[in-house]
């Protein structure tokens, strides 16, 4: 009985202490000391998270590798044929790019920003925040920076996945486009009309601020707008699946089905902007 | 010392299951809050002290690994661990109905608590929105509770 009273007292004291710590963390949310604590805990925990992903990956790989060998052989033969036909196009493209750079410098247009990409594995995804964020296994040491655009492969082309929200030495957290806090300037491709694509914390997006005269229809593709400061223009976001204009609204909204399958995320492509290539890069 | 090591293993395993493996049994994102159910189990079987310490550790880890409000999970898990521990030796945890009832009640309280914390401390920086994933999570937790209790009771002897 006495032991139980002592134990209860210990639990009560611990509760008071932890309660105070929690209230401090919540009140001083993400101030410098709290951010330091958060980063420290993340660094300590990251290996366990990566280990869990590694175990799953190795089991997955073993079973899929056998089938992959046959598939890759067939794909290899097809790709060899494609390379032959594409080599001519590549030369043409290079020539057009040089000409474009030269002409841009002549008329005084700003130089084109070039970028490279890094493929990262998605190593952590909390199911309760399924459409909100993921963790990838690349970070600062790989050249990833805050707000870097993150894409995923969908239907044989890159599509918008999200942007880097927090970056650490060997990992980064990506806020998905479906997160309710995410907003990306988008463009209805066929109409060249801009709007703001917003997440819903679910498997659908919405595009806002479409003018009342818009002729948007179901099936129209939505891509990133040149107005976006994060994403390169023309990257596919998804397709309009619902649009019902109201009569008295200043702006209309449409529902979009994202191009990326958010239930099958394994890899992500992080786009790294390189230094601007000016006219001096033009070969004479 | 043995007890600390076992709790540490439970802590690491819990995080690995929630953050590394839970996605493989989460159709359409409808997922269990595995840590919450485990926490209720630990609180009921071992008392408030163990429940609140493990709850705080899991909660602070969840907050650090996610982009959600730092301290929110730590606060709620700690409280749930403590209050489930108050039922230690007062609740017949061997009845499946009791396990499911407690897991369901804890899940609903967790969502209400989360909504409250975001409303008080979130300002405009953080939003906790209810959607089909959060709404269906208590149902998933209720179904998961008997499995966690069944497996947990077979492993709990390691602590004795």
Short description, anyone?
The complex is a heterodimer of chains A (284) and B (160). Chain A is globular, with a radius of gyration of 24 Å.
Radius of gyration of chain B, taken over Cα atoms and rounded to an integer in Å: 15 Å
User: Fraction of residues of chain B in helices?
Assistant: over 70%
Largest sheet of chain B: none
Of all chain pairs, the largest interface belongs to: A-B, 54 and 54 residues
CATH class of the largest domain in chain A: Mainly Beta
C-alpha geometry of chain A: globular
Low-confidence stretches of chain A: 276-284
Order of helices and strands of chain B: HHHHHH
The second-level CATH architecture of chain B is Orthogonal Bundle
- Helical residue percent of chain A? 25-40%
* Fourth-tier CATH superfamily name of the largest domain in chain A: Rod shape-determining protein MreC, domain 1
* Main β sheet profile of chain A: 6 strands, antiparallel, barrel
Description:
The complex is a heterodimer of chains A (284) and B (160). Chain A is 36% helix and 29% strand. By secondary structure, chain A is α+β, with helices and mostly antiparallel strands. Chain A has two domains: 31-112, no CATH class; 113-274, Thrombin, subunit H, CATH 2.40.10. In chain A, strands 1-2-5-4-3-12 form a six-stranded antiparallel β-barrel. Chain A has a six-stranded antiparallel β-barrel with strand order 6-7-8-11-10-9. In chain A, β7 (193-199) and β8 (205-210) form a beta hairpin. Chain B has 160 residues and is mainly alpha-helical. Chain B has one domain (2-159): Orthogonal Bundle (Arp2/3 complex 21 kDa subunit ARPC3). Chain B has helices spanning 2-21, 34-46, 48-65, 72-85, 96-121, 132-155. In chain B, α1 packs parallel to α3 (48-65) and α3 (48-65) packs antiparallel against α4. The longest helix of chain B has 26 residues, at 96-121. The mean pLDDT of chain B is 84. At the A-B interface, α1 and α2 of A face α1, α3, α4, α5 and α6 of B.
């Amino acid at each position: 009985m006495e032991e139980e009273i002592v134990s209860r007292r210990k639990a009560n004291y611990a509760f008071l202490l932890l309660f105070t710590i929690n209230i401090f963390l919540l009140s001083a949310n993400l101030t410098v000391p709290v951010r330091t604590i958060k980063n420290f805990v993340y660094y300590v925990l990251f290996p366990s998270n990566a280990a869990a992903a590694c175990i799953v990956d190795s089991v997955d790989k073993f079973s899929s590798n056998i089938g992959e060998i046959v598939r890759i052989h067939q794909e290899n033969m097809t790709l060899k044929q494609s390379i032959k036909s594409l080599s001519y196009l590549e030369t043409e493209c290079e020539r057009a790019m040089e000409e474009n750079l030269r002409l841009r410098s002549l008329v005084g247009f700003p130089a084109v920003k070039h970028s490279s990409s890094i493929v990262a594995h998605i190593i952590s995804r909390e199911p309760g925040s399924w459409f909100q964020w993921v963790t990838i296994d690349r970070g600062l040491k790989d050249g990833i920076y805050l707000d870097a655009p993150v894409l995923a492969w969908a239907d044989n082309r890159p599509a918008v996945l999200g942007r880097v929200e927090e970056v650490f030495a060997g990992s980064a957290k990506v806020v998905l486009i479906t997160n309710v806090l995410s907003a990306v300037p988008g463009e209805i491709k066929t109409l060249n009309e801009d709007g703001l694509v917003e997440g819903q914390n679910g498997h659908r997006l919405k595009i806002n601020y479409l003018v009342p005269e818009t002729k948007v229809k179901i099936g129209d593709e939505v891509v990133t707008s040149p107005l976006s400061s994060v994403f390169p223009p023309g990257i596919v976001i998804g397709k309009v699946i619902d649009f019902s204009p109201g009569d008295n609204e200043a702006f209309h909204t449409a529902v979009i089905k994202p191009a990326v399958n958010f239930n099958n995320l394994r890899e992500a492509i992080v786009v790294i902007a390189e230094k601007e290539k000016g006219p001096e890069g033009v070969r004479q | 010392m043995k007890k600390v090591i076992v709790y540490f293993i439970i802590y690491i395993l819990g995080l690995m299951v929630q953050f590394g493996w839970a996605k493989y049994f989460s159709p359409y994102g409808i997922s269990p809050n595995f840590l919450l159910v485990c926490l209720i189990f630990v609180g009921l079987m071992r008392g408030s002290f163990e429940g609140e310490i493990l709850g705080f550790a899991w909660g602070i880890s969840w907050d650090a690994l996610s982009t959600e409000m730092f301290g929110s999970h730590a606060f709620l898990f700690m409280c749930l661990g403590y209050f489930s521990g108050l039922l230690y030796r007062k609740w017949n945890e061997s009845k499946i109905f009791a396990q499911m009832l407690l897991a369901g009640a804890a899940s609903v309280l967790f969502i209400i608590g989360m909504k409250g914390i975001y409303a008080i401390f979130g300002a405009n920086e953080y939003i906790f929105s209810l959607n089909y994933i959060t709404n269906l999570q208590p149902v998933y937790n209720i179904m998961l509770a008997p499995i966690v209790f069944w497996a947990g009771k077979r492993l709990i002897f390691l602590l004795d």
